[in-house]
Amino acid sequence: MIEKQVAGELMPSTRLSSITTIPHVPFPFIECQNRILKARQLMKSNSFDALLITSEHNFRYFVDDTSTTPVQTTRPRFLLLLTSGEVIAVVPTGLDDFLRETTWIQDFRTWPGPNPRDEGVSEVTSLLNQLLPENARIGIELGPESRLGVSGGDFLRIAEAIRPRVFEDASEPIMTPLRMIKSDGEIDRIRTVCETVSHVFDNLTQQLYSGMTEREASRLFELECFKRGVDKTTKIDGASGHGGYSRCYGEPTDKVMSGGDVLFIDAGCQFNFYWCDFNRNFSFGEADPHTQDAYRAVWEATEVGISAAQPGIPICNVWTAMSDSLSQLRHRGKSSNIGRMGHSMGLWMPELPSVQQNDNTVLEAGMIVNIEPSMTYPSYFDGSSKLMLHEEVVVITESGAKLLTSRAPRQIPVVK
């Protein structure tokens, strides 16, 4: 066991080693200004008079906000970008002091929050009516894989109060293309968390043992991530099963693992607000022949996907290359029906584009791509359907895909 109960007190079974903290380097002011400039260029080309940012991740993208609340259910925050002039933040009283001290924003409008009856609605409405013509088109987050950072009711009240001005989706024409191409600073944060978590995965086999539970294995993994400098272990999925696992989602359970079991851990971790997301597989005792074959097939499909991820090609070609690799007749299994074989990520996980058959997004240098093939195969023991999944993270460069994670071993790691 990882912990022992002694005389009514919870005692660690091993002494904790020193904890690593990795410095957080803020984005330079010029990078934030360049993001605003690019947003305004896209606003002009798409005939928007203003951009109203409400999503926490989009707010952070422009402001480099270091407050730690990932989702606000109270005290929403708004950022108004006009085609020129100062960017205006509309935030609850008190938050303006923090943002004035820690960010480049200077122009603030505030209200005393929380105030469920008027959570910034009057301030935002007044500002839009005052600064924008009646025929204004205002961009806001309404498109695929986006969300509003304000309640639906408040959004509808604002939309009604500013008529004939109208809100239209700015996610697809502005925010998605902006955030899809990562800066060197963003890539460095993603590389840092990918390398840190890779190191933990690379050393985890020796720390696992027969008789531990899924939950114990996952908590041990999380502890090592924290000790090595990860800020948050936001999404840790874990699953296991005799002869393979049957799902790749969900909280780890108290199921005890022993010989013949295969453990799947999927790590969604953060460093300085940027994500990594990739998994590793472990066999308790020597893996059965079907699991070994499936592991090898998906590992090879991952190699194919990494090689196919070249700048200038549509991302659906990466999907096709991996699907063809998994469809070879020599394989017992077949490509799974999860729906895609990867995605992008950054301030959120996942982000567009998707490694999907019908996604024609052209890969460009600076994109992050999670290469994530999977297949189903029959259990060696009872013929039931099992799943095998691999995931690695790459950045697209002018010369091709470069790994940000350490590559999973060619043979499934064995827990003695």
UniProtKB/TrEMBL annotation:
Family matches, as CDD domains: APP_MetAP
Creatinase N-terminal domain ranges (all copies): 35-181
InterPro entries: Creatin/AminoP/Spt16_N, Creatinase/aminopeptidase-like, Creatinase_N, Pept_M24, Peptidase_M24B
Pfam families: Creatinase_N (PF01321), Peptidase_M24 (PF00557)
Peptidase M24 domain mapped to chain residues: 189-398
Protein name per the record: Xaa-Pro peptidase family protein
Organism per entry: Mesorhizobium montanum
